[in-house]
Amino acid sequence: MTRRPDGPGRAPDGQPPAPAPAGGSFLEMWRELLPLGRHAASRGYRRYAWTGADLDCRAWFADQAAARGLTYEVDRNGNQWAWLGDPEAGDAVVTGSHLDSVPDGGAFDGPLGVVSSFAALDELRARGTDLARPLAVVNFGDEEGARFGLACVGSRLTAGQLTAADAHRLTDADGVSLPRAMEAAGHDPDAIGADPDRLARIGAFVELHVEQGRALDLSGDRVGIASAIWPHGRWRFDFRGEANHAGTTRLVDRRDPMLTYAETVLAARREARLAGAVATFGKISVEPNGVNAIPSLVRGWLDSRAEDQASLDTVVDGIEKAARGHAEAHGVDLDVVRESFTPVVEFDHALRDELGRILGTDTGITVPVLGTGAGHDAGILSGSIPTAMLFVRNPTGVSHSPAEHAAEDDCAAGVLALADVLEGLARR
Ligand SMILES: [Zn+2]
C-alpha cells in the first residue's frame, strides 16, 4: 500500500492540510460536473431523474467510462456501470453513488461518491495495483426521488424491493409516468425489474458520501465509516377541535386543536432530546385555514429517527402520550396514524471491520464509525449484498441545500481512503 504524509483520519494539529495526490483527476471531473443542472437563481441543483439535467450527468458518466477505457453498460433499470475487469467474472468490488439531486440540492450529495470512485480507480492504476477482482463504478438512478416521490428507485428495482408494476404507477407532478419519462430518455421501461443475476456477481458494494451531519467535524476526522442507518418513520397526527369565531369565542369556551398541536411540537423536541434522537414536525395542514377562525382540524406530520428501535419507540410513544394528555385537557380529539416505517439498516459487520482494518493499517489511526439518519442506495442493497459506506467531513453538516460543502483536502482524503479500501479488497 502506498505510504503518504497524511491519512484519511485526523489532520495533525497545527500542520497544513495534506496534499492531494489524487486531486488532479478529481478536480477536473468536479469542475466538469459542477455546472450541470445548476439553477441560475437558487444556485442549487435540479437534477431530477430522466430530465435533461439528469441526462447531461449521465452523458458525463459515460464519457468518464470511455475516457478510461472502462466497459460501460446501462442495466435494465437504467443504472450506469463502468467496469475495470470482466463484469461477468463475479465477486466484484463495486463503488459509486448517485448523480440526481433533491430540489435545489447541493453539489456533493451523490456526485462526491461518483467522482471519488473514478478518481480512486485512477489512483489504483497510478499505483499499479494488481487486481484479483473486477472493480466497477455505478451511478444509481433516481436516488433522491425528487420527481416521482419514491427514493432509491434504481437500487430498489435492482434489489427487488420495488416491483416493475409499482414503479410503472409512479407519476411526477405534471402527471408524466415513470415509464413515459424513461422512454422519452431513451430507456425501455418494459425492461425494468429485479436483477438478482447482477447482484450475484457483486461481492461488496462501498458507497462514499458526504456526511449529512457534523459528527466528523466535531471529532476532527476527515473520513468515517458507517455503522448503520437509523430506523425512521412518519406519523400523521390529526387534532380535531371546533371551528369558531376568533373574535367572539371566549378562550375558556374554545376547543382549539392548534394549541394541542403546538404543545405536541414542544413535546417532540423534549422527547427527542432526552433520547438522543431527532423528531420533526415539518409539514402541517389546517382547516378551515382562516386567519380569523379557530381551526377545526390541525394535521401535523411527524418524522422521527433514532439510533435503535427501542429509542425510536420511546420517543414516538412519549410524543403520542403527551399529545393525548394535552388533547384531553383542551377537549380535542386525536388520531395518530403511522404512514411509513423503515427499520434499522445494519451494514455488514465483517465488511465494516475490514474497512476499519484497511484504513487503520495504513494510517495507524482508528477511523470513526458512525450512524446516520439519512437513507442511501447502500442501505437498500445491504439486504442483498455485503455493503459499507465511507463518509467525508461536512464542516457545517448542512445537506440537501446549496450550502452543502466538503473541503478540497477532505475530498482528496476521501478519494485516498476509497482507493485504499478498493485496493485492500480487490488486490491479488
Ligand atoms: Zn445521497
UniProtKB/TrEMBL annotation:
Record region (Disordered): 1-24
Pfam families recorded: Peptidase_M20 (PF01546)
Positions of allantoate binding: R234, N292, R305
Cofactor, free-text remark: Binds 2 Zn(2+) ions per subunit.
Binding site for Zn(2+) 1: H98, D109, H209
InterPro entries: Amidase_Cbmase (IPR010158), Bact_exopeptidase_dim_dom (IPR036264), Peptidase_M20 (IPR002933)
Residue positions binding Zn(2+) 2: D109, E144, H400
Keywords: Hydrolase, Metal-binding, Zinc
Keyword check for rRNA-binding: no
GO molecular function: hydrolase activity, acting on carbon-nitrogen (but not peptide) bonds, in linear amidines; metal ion binding
Cofactors: Zn(2+)
Gene3D superfamilies registered for this protein in UniProt: 3.30.70.360, Zn peptidases
Highest taxon listed in the record's lineage: Bacteria
PANTHER family: ALLANTOATE AMIDOHYDROLASE, ALLANTOATE DEIMINASE-RELATED
NCBIfam families the record matches: hydantase, PRK09290.1-4
Family recorded in the similarity comment: Belongs to the peptidase M20 family.
Protein name, per record: Allantoate amidohydrolase
Organism classification: Bacteria, Bacillati, Actinomycetota, Actinomycetes, Kitasatosporales
